[in-house]
Design a protein that fits this description.
Length: 132
């Protein structure tokens, strides 16, 4: 891997740990102010979130709507010079429903910050049903 790829991998690991622990200071460091976060589906949390404030509000909403049960378990992280891919297991509970699905999150990294994120869920219909 190139030096930039190594740096991107380290940044992605740092971002994941910060998300898992709720470390807003680190998340603010690694997410660009103009980040765009894209969430697929036909449900209450689907949509494009533009800017760090909107993206962080989305993250907070996931926690709020699940009573803090929303968890991301890393299965693999792959990086290159342009960004990388997280392969994760996502679990949560809400309103008597349980969620346990795989997420492939593609991020674009520029100048040492995440500028774009695309969530892609295996069995997206389960994601939609959970949030329905």
């Amino acid at each position: 891997m190139s030096e930039t790829g190594d740096k991107n991998l380290a940044l992605m690991r740092r971002a994941l740990h910060a998300f898992q622990t709720g470390d807003m200071a680190i998340l603010t460091e690694v997410f660009d102010e103009m980040v765009v976060w894209r969430v697929p589906g036909r449900n209450r949390v689907a949509g494009d979130y533009e800017g760090r404030e909107a993206t962080f509000a989305f993250f907070g909403r996931l926690m709020e709507l699940t009573g803090g049960t929303f968890k991301v378990e890393s299965l693999d992280i792959l990086a290159n010079d342009r960004g990388g891919v997280f392969v994760d297991r996502v679990t949560a509970t809400r309103d008597g429903r349980s969620l346990d699905i795989r997420l492939m999150l593609h991020v674009t990294i520029q100048d040492g910050r995440i500028v774009e994120g695309y969530d892609q869920f295996h069995q997206e219909h389960l994601w939609d049903t959970f949030w329905g």
